[in-house]
Amino acid sequence: MSDQNKENLIEELGDNHIATSYENPIREDAFEMSDDEKIEKIKGHVHQIMETLGMDMTDDSLQGTPNRVAKMYVNETFGGLHPNKKPKASTFQNNYKYGEMLVEKNITVYSTCEHHLLPIIGRAHVAYISSGRVIGLSKMNRIVNYYAKRPQVQERLTMQVVKELQKALKTEDVACVIDAKHLCVNSRGINDIESSTVTSEYGGKFKDENVRRELLNYIKLDTKF
Ligand SMILES: Nc1nc2c(ncn2[C@@H]2O[C@H](COP(=O)(O)OP(=O)(O)OP(=O)(O)O)[C@@H](O)[C@H]2O)c(=O)[nH]1
Ligand SMILES: [Zn+2]
């Protein structure tokens, strides 16, 4: 889809938090409950799931599991749902006039498939060409991590990373490629342990075939994870 078409789609859907093409479908009242309240509620649900499965929830080893899972969901696995967790993307002036692409490659991705709530494990490769600003390297890892910590589909995660960096760097010239294993494909269902999923989003100059080839040459998608 062209950038213009994407912009039109966003305009059509409205620029709010409810299911635009780039946003996760998060309800408007999602942040009315505190994290502690969410943990308490989720804890009860996990307890029920385990009990329904027939587990003895008085067992010493199982007793703490509902609380553990609830804390993990709210603070870690899905910690990127809250906008106040968005990392600050410090940028600096490109005083040294570096004009080539910069690639932050092999960024570890731990995300969660929104269809099965199973892990997505892989690598993200992020690149940009400066239009006058440069960004702290670690901020690219942090942005990937922030959007990964949500129930996700890989396509959306890839686009969110690009959009966020385009905003921070004030340029269209940003790209992201993600190669990841979905445990819902690898460890259940079709049980194909070898397959992985590659997604990409190329903005601005990265739509040019030569620029794209240069990026793909740097990242060589042979990483094992
Ligand atoms: N496009 C896309 N699909 C995904 C992603 N993660 C998981 N899926 C797929 O989501 C689909 C959900 O399909 P369903 O038929 O509703 O679920 P299911 O019966 O468990 O399907 P199987 O996984 O084939 O057993 C599956 O084909 C998954 O492989 C993702 O990031 N992007
Ligand atoms: Zn899945």
Automatic annotation (TrEMBL):
Entry keyword annotation includes Metal-binding: yes
Record's keyword terms, sorted: GTP-binding, Hydrolase, Metal-binding, Nucleotide-binding, One-carbon metabolism, Zinc
Enzyme class: hydrolase
Any Gene Ontology biological process: tetrahydrofolate biosynthetic process
Pfam family, any one: GTP_cyclohydroI
UniProt pathway: Cofactor biosynthesis; 7,8-dihydroneopterin triphosphate biosynthesis; 7,8-dihydroneopterin triphosphate from GTP: step 1/1
An annotated Gene Ontology molecular function: GTP binding
Domain GTP cyclohydrolase I stretches: 43-219
SUPFAM superfamilies for the chain: Tetrahydrobiopterin biosynthesis enzymes-like (SSF55620)
EC number, UniProt record: 3.5.4.16
InterPro entries membership: GTP-CH-I_C/QueF, GTP-CH-I_N, GTP_CycHdrlase_I, GTP_CycHdrlase_I_CS, GTP_CycHdrlase_I_dom
Catalytic activity: GTP + H2O = 7,8-dihydroneopterin 3'-triphosphate + formate + H(+)
One Gene Ontology term, aspect cellular component: cytoplasm
Residues engaged in binding Zn(2+): C113, H116, C184
Oligomeric form and interacting partners: Homopolymer.
UniProt cross-references to PANTHER family, sorted A to Z: GTP CYCLOHYDROLASE 1, GTP CYCLOHYDROLASE I
Membership in a protein family: Belongs to the GTP cyclohydrolase I family.
Name of this protein: GTP cyclohydrolase 1
Species of origin: Psychroflexus gondwanensis ACAM 44
